[in-house]
Amino acid sequence: MLCSAMECGVFNARFQGEGRGFAGDEILMQKVKYLLRRGVVVMTMVMLMFISVSLAVLLAKYSNAGYIVAWPALGDFVLPLCFVLLAQIFRNRVCAVIAVLLAFVNVILRIATFIIRRETFMPFGLDTLILLWEHADHKGFQAVLGRYYYLWLFPLLAVALGVMIFFCTRAWYESRKRRRVIPNSWITVFALLFAVSIFSSTFYVCTTASEKEPDQYSMALVRPTPVIVADIAGGIVDMAMSSMSECGFFPEDLPADSAELLEKHHIFNRKPQGCEVSREPSAYDRVIIIAVESLELAFLRSFNPAMPEGVTPYLDRLCRENISFKNCFTAAQPTSWGLTALMMSRLDYRRELKNPGNPSLFSISGRLGFEGFYFSPVSGYFGRNRETYMRLWGGEINNYFFSEDWRSRFNAKSRHTWGISDRELFGSVLSVLEKEDCPKQFIALISTIDIHPPYTRVIDGKCKKEFNSPFLDSLHSFDHHLEYFLSRLMKNPELYNERTLIVLTADHSATHGENYLKRKDFNPERIPLVFITPNRRPLEGLDVEKYCSSIDLTPTLVRLIGGKTPRTFMGRDLREKKDCAIAWTSGDRIFFYDRSREEPLIVQLDGTGNADEPDAFRKMVADYFRLYYRK
Question: Buried (b) or exposed (e) across 494-509, using 16+ Cβ within 10 A?
């Protein structure tokens, strides 16, 4: 009996030990399954993000017209939806929180994209946000919302962040109550948001694609979220890096191979003339530059037979009867970029704002005894233009005229959403130039606005012809008012004589307007460059077929008024041998045009670009820019 009891005890002990062993193995297996499940979740998350970004990069690289309309269905909302499914299958709270965050980010970016596209015709990105901030009417906001109106953004951001944190917290703790990470009601909301975004993007793009003249910027609405986020993050990194770098002119840093190519194309001379002012005889005492808003050369019927007849008769006549270039390109866009490139012969407006002090046409001519005038139809508060242009270009503050000055001094009326119409502008400019105390030597820059949306047409005298198009009506109206201005100016012998030079050009090429240009994009293109003067002797030898850009105008004018070209100028005198055009757009892209190619060479700052171009040539273009904007 005792043995049986002992054997039974041993058996029970062994049985219990084996039971404990079985239980331990089960716990171990549960831990292994748990770790494997977490590993699968992590790997799935990484693979989904990699696939999403890879698809975005491929679409950005191989799609000429933007991003295909199916992208929101294939990319942006598949990613958060997959995280929802992962959260449900694996009951993973991290996936649930990521799904909520991605849903919020997608919806916010989609709404912001629609608003910015509607207001600016541009895609949502860091460059667009900077442009909106620089061109905002800060004085108007201060008058309505107070001096520190921008602090109102913080409560809005706090509310949005609070809502996001609330839903993330709900997703994190939901499984404790319902043993489901994300309830069915949430999945329904996700599905509705995805469907609305996909439908709205698809509907808009299909609608614009069916129009006779499709909107070139419609594809901005379906820009992939990973690309938007990468664009903003990359822009912030670039700004941080550029703020820590030194901008300047260091010719000794130019590689020998690039220097040789630049000299071969007469783009750069390793022995610059310097910043000294030469007292050589001036060919002209009065230089008047008219920078027409967005006037592309292809808007003139004499250069583009597709344009309706009779829209620009006076502009066509000016091009026929005067020295008119056929291959002059805008150097930068939009307006602030274009005008600064023209006045300072430099390309990057943003870097100029960070490092002011480079010479301009106003500062050089001022040392030669010329007085500088700038006439603008828009407000000086808009984009802080008065303050910014004064800081960059120099000159006398009393010689900067904006819409508020025209209204207070000359009782000009507002006929345009942005300020005063071109008719009012030209009349007010004549009032200034025809004054008895107007200096005998001056440089005047006039920028216009009528051809900017919303297009303005002022019916006056002979300007009654209609073309059933707001853009064409506005262009025809401007043509009429320009004829009035120049005709009256030329009748005044004190203003227009052998010592007067009038330059007709544009601030930049078209970024809007009806697509009579038959272009797929709005990259820098040809603009008018017309020299009007009764004294053409100083301009002898100009080749109107040569390639040039806006940055080449100021070096030419500086030499014509008796000055030397400073080494900070990126352009060359139009009378020199240089026969190529260089332009710049946001996104660190440089455009190079010459006679040897139908399409421009597009180069990034890292030297990459057209694959069919030699590496040395792409490197030359990038080194040329880095020489003036050191990184």
Answer: ebbeebbbbbbbbbbb
| Integer Cα distance of 83 and 94 in angstroms | 9
Amino acid identity of residue 431, one-letter, is S
Q: Do 386 and 354 contact (CB within 8 A), yes or no? A: no
Long-range contacts formed by 26-30: CB under 8 A, 24+ apart? none
Query: What is the rounded distance in angstroms from the CA atom of residue 560 to the CA atom of residue 352?
Result: 25
On the CB side of 492, CA atoms within 13 Å amount to: 15
- Specify whether the CB–CB gap between 591 and 600 falls below 8 A: yes
User: Does residue 184 have a pLDDT over 70?
Assistant: no
pLDDT digits (tens, 9 = 90+) for 397-420: 788 999 888 888 877 776 666 788
List the single range of 293-297, 540-544, 616-620 with lowest mean pLDDT.
616-620
Strand 530-532 versus strand 323-324 pairing type: antiparallel
3-state SS, one letter per residue, for 32-88: HHHHHHHHHHHHHHHHHHHHHHHHHHHHHHHCCCCCCCCHHHHHHCHHHHHHHHHHH
- Summarised one tens digit per residue, pLDDT across range 566-611 is 888 999 999 988 899 999 886 678 899 988 888 888 887 765 555 4
Count CB neighbours of 94 within 10 A: 18
DSSP secondary structure code for residue 565 in this structure: -
Give the model confidence (pLDDT) of 88-147 as tens digits.
776 677 777 887 787 777 777 777 777 776 665 566 777 677 666 766 666 666 766 777
**Cross-strand bridge partners of residue 502:** 288, 532
| Residue entry with tokens 């040329």 | 624
CB-facing half-sphere around the CA of 569: CA atoms within 13 A:
32
Residues in contact with 227: Cβ distance below 8 Å, sequence separation at least 6, in sequence order? 56, 60, 67
User: Within 10 A of 128 (CB to CB), how many other CB atoms are there?
Assistant: 23
Comparison of pLDDT for 12 and 497, the residue scoring more: 497
The mean per-residue pLDDT over the stretch 335-353 comes to: 89
Whole-prediction pTM value? Answer: 0.68
User: What kind and span of H or E run contains 140?
Assistant: helix 138-145
Give CA–CA dist 573/92, Å, rounded: 67
Alpha-carbon span 338 to 106, nearest angstrom: 34
- How far does CA 235 lie from the centroid of its chain? 12
Residue ranges per domain, the chain? Answer: 36-241
C-alpha–C-alpha distance, residues 274 and 296, integer Å: 34
Residue 175: predicted pLDDT: 56
Give the residue among 605, 622, 630 at the shortest CA–CA distance from 262: 622
Tokens of 320: 């026929």
Q: Which two tokens stand for residue 384?
A: 């802080």
